[in-house]
Design goal:
globular; 2 strands
Length: 170
C-alpha cells in the first residue's frame, strides 16, 4: 500500500512537470467547464495525469514522465463547454482530441510523445492507435477517471488537492 509520502511524490512530480501548463490562463479556464458529473475539465485533466503516473509505476513501465504528465494535462485542452451543442457540435467525442491538440500546440511547445498522447487519447473512438506507452497510459487513465467521475469518487478530488498544494508551493 502506498504511503501519503509516495502519493505526494506523484503530486509534486505533476506540479514540477506541468509548471508552465498550470500557469497558463487557458489551463485555468478549464476550471469553468464541467467535464463529467460535477468534475471540471481542470480536475479531470489533473486526475488523468495522476492516474497515468500511478499506472506506470504500478506496472513498472519505463516512461518519459514529463511527456506523460504534460500530455495528460493537455489531453482535453479543447477549451469549450462540450455540453452546449452550439459550442461542441454533436461530434465532440470524435473531434475534441484534435481541437485539444491544436490549442495545446498554439499555447505550448510539444514534443512527439505529447502530441501523440493528446491526439490519440480517445482510442478506439478515434481510429488511429496510440504510438507510445505514454499515449496508451493516458488513454486508459482517461477512461478510468471518467468512470470514477461519473460515479463521483471522492479520491479524485483528494488527488487534485494534493497537486494544487504542490503547485502553490512551487
Amino acid at each position: 500500500m502506498r504511503t501519503v509520502g509516495q502519493k505526494d511524490e506523484i503530486a509534486k512530480l505533476i506540479a514540477v512537470c506541468g509548471r508552465d501548463i498550470f500557469a497558463a490562463a487557458n489551463m485555468q479556464q478549464e476550471r469553468n467547464y464541467v467535464q463529467h458529473g460535477t468534475v471540471t475539465c481542470y480536475e479531470h485533466s489533473v486526475s488523468v495525469a495522476y492516474v497515468s503516473v500511478w499506472l506506470a509505476r504500478c506496472m513498472g513501465l519505463r516512461v518519459d514522465s514529463a511527456s506523460l504528465i504534460r500530455g495528460a494535462l493537455l489531453h482535453d485542452y479543447f477549451l469549450y463547454d462540450w455540453h452546449r451543442a452550439e459550442e461542441a457540435g454533436k461530434w465532440h467525442g470524435f473531434r475534441h482530441a484534435q481541437r485539444a491538440l491544436d490549442n495545446a500546440q498554439r499555447d505550448f511547445h510539444l514534443n512527439a510523445v505529447e502530441r501523440d498522447v493528446i491526439r490519440k487519447h480517445m482510442f478506439p473512438l478515434n481510429l488511429r492507435p496510440p504510438r507510445y506507452r505514454e499515449s496508451v497510459l493516458v488513454s486508459c487513465a482517461d477512461k478510468l477517471c471518467a468512470l470514477g467521475e461519473m460515479v463521483e469518487l471522492s479520491a479524485l478530488r483528494r488527488r487534485v488537492r494534493r497537486v494544487e498544494a504542490c503547485v502553490q508551493l512551487g
